[in-house]
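hey m, so remember when u said the tokens were messed up on ur end? i reran from scratch. heres the input so u can diff it against urs
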Amino acid sequence: MVIGVRVDATGVVSDVWVVRSSGRTILDEVALRTVRGWRFRPGVVDDEAATTETDVSIRFQLSD
């Protein structure tokens, strides 16, 4: 699955959305909740930290 992420100039996630679903609502919800808590190195535009967007691939491995 792929999650879209907007990261503000401080590296905090300000928005997340599903770009490509896992096909399971519960897995999509877990991925969104998890990525919301991540911290990123902020993007740089004209040598200054800036709000940017990126995609993050999430791979689930289910086991018994």
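this time it looks ok to me. The mean pLDDT is 95. if urs says something different then somethings off w ur setup not the seq
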